[in-house]
């Protein structure tokens, strides 16, 4: 029997609730007639670790993760610690340390969820957003001088390289090629950002020649937001820079009903290092410890984790269980207008998995 070694990093806030819920669901899946099992290891890094040790994770923490098959991550963010410390000290340290350069965010309106686009049919909103995850606006290049003085200055430089842009473009074209519509939208802002984004556009044209069966178009990021709202059926796969895709994917999740249901994968496509899977909702300290967090985003992230491991049948089983649960309004958490708890939704998914197992032929 195959054993997958999974690092669990709950991080901060409701991450401490949804990551254990994800682990529970994965254990239920593995225990219901599967040909694999999981070996989980917990890492208590995050805000509490920072208060105790002065850092979000140990200096050599990547070494503890390097030989894992995947990472299940919760959230990074603590109201008592500056955001740039929590983000760069934990999540980005892992993403950049393991060159997880493709951030993949699928978006669909799941059964039973009422999205805000009243004119939109569920099948009109079936997107996957590819976010460049290693450079661009979040390269960390810049600085501050004369702090606190009238002449204080600060810079953040968007750093893009040909190698970085080429590899994310190829990844996005391949992903679009694998989807039924074979349609890609390249998001840009080259009308105003006339150096790096012009290179981004030029490389898109060059890479597109390698994928003649993929239809593609280009959209300015501001126009893309309107298109997502007004013409969702014209979109399928999107590729955008680190910052642009960060913003667009939150809009996409809101249009699908809630940030609480949205997953993401931080992928090393070359599989040199473990990839990391997480919900996009953040730490949500206002509901922390109340049992109100929606675990569906984590469960869907577990689907992506299973797909990455090659366990596609198991991924389909879990996705089917998720859809059966969201289809029942009695199992909606507060972000979806319901009153269900994290524990109730988790148990319902586990029950669905158990029922699936009983229906399987011996």
What sort of overall outline do the alpha carbons produce when their principal axes are compared?
A: globular
- The end-to-end span amounts to 18 Å
* Low confidence ranges: none
Radius of gyration: 20 Å
User: Which sheet architecture does the biggest sheet show?
Assistant: 10 strands, mixed
Number of helices: 11
Descriptive account of the structure:
The chain is of the alpha/beta class. It has 11 helices and 12 strands. Strands 2-1-3-12-11-4-5-10-8-9 form a 10-stranded mixed beta sheet, with helices on both faces. The chain has a two-stranded antiparallel ribbon with strand order 6-7. A hairpin with a 7-residue loop joins strand 6 and strand 7. Helix 1 packs parallel to helix 11 (342-359) and helix 7 runs parallel beside helix 8 (242-255). The chain is globular and about 60 Å long. The two termini are 18 Å apart. The model has no long low-confidence stretch (mean pLDDT 95).
At a glance:
The protein contains 11 helices and 12 strands. It is an alpha/beta fold. The protein is globular, with a radius of gyration of 20 Å.
Search tags:
362 residues; two-stranded antiparallel ribbon; 10-stranded mixed beta sheet; globular; alpha/beta; 11 helices
């Amino acid at each position: 029997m195959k054993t997958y070694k999974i690092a669990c990093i709950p991080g901060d806030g409701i991450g401490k609730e949804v990551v254990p819920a994800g682990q529970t669901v994965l254990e239920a899946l593995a225990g219901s007639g599967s040909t694999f099992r999981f070996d989980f290891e917990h890492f208590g890094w995050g805000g509490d670790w920072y208060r105790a040790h002065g850092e979000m994770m140990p200096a050599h923490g990547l070494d503890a993760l390097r030989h894992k098959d995947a990472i299940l991550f919760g959230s990074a963010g603590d109201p008592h610690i500056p955001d740039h410390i929590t983000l760069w000290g934990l999540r980005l340290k892992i993403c950049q340390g393991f060159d997880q350069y493709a951030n993949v965010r699928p978006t669909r309106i799941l059964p039973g969820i009422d999205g805000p686009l009243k004119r939109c049919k569920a099948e009109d909103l079936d997107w996957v957003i590819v976010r460049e995850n290693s450079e661009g606006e979040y390269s960390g290049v810049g600085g501050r001088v004369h702090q606190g003085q009238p002449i204080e200055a600060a810079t953040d430089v968007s750093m893009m390289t040909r190698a970085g842009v080429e590899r994310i473009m190829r990844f996005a074209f391949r992903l679009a090629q694998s989807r039924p519509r074979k349609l890609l939208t390249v998001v840009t802002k080259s009308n105003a950002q006339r150096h790096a984004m012009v290179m981004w556009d030029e490389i898109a044209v060059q890479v597109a020649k390698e994928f003649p069966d993929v239809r593609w178009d280009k959209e300015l990021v501001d126009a893309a937001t309107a298109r997502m709202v007004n013409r969702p059926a014209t979109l399928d796969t999107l590729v955008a820079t680190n910052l642009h895709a960060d913003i667009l994917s939150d809009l996409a999740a809101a249009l699908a009903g809630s940030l609480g249901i949205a997953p993401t994968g931080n992928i090393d496509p070359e599989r040199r290092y473990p990839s990391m899977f997480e919900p996009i909702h953040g730490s949500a300290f206002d509901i922390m410890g109340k049992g109100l967090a929606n675990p569906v985003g984590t469960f869907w992230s577990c689907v992506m984790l299973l797909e990455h491991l090659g366990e596609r049948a198991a991924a389909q089983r879990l996705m089917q269980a998720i859809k059966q649960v969201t289809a029942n309004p009695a199992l909606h958490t507060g972000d979806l207008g319901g009153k269900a708890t994290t524990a109730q939704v988790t148990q319902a998914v586990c029950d669905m998995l158990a029922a699936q197992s009983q229906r399987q032929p011996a």
